[in-house]
Amino acid sequence: MQTRETVDLFLQLIIELLKDGGRAAVVLSDGTLFDQNKDGLGC
Question: Is pLDDT of 25 > 60?
Fold first, then answer.
């Protein structure tokens, strides 16, 4: 996964550092995941 977005890189790091079956909680500002106007994750 390659990206220049800081939030995306932070989430990628968290995912890679998790052990198998591990859990993580991340608090993001409004619109970070679902804002279609930005180059965010756009889920």
Answer: yes
- The amino acid that residue 25 corresponds to is A
User: In Å, how far from its chain's centre is CA 39?
Assistant: 12
Q: How many Cβ atoms from other residues are within 10 Å of residue 20's Cβ?
A: 4
Tokens 């994750």 sit at which residue? 41
pTM of the predicted protein model: 0.52
11/13 Cα distance (integer angstroms): 5
Domain boundaries in the chain?
Answer: 1-43
Q: What share of the chain is helix, strand, coil (3-state, %, to 5)?
A: 30, 0, 70
Distance CA 36, CA 16 (A): 26
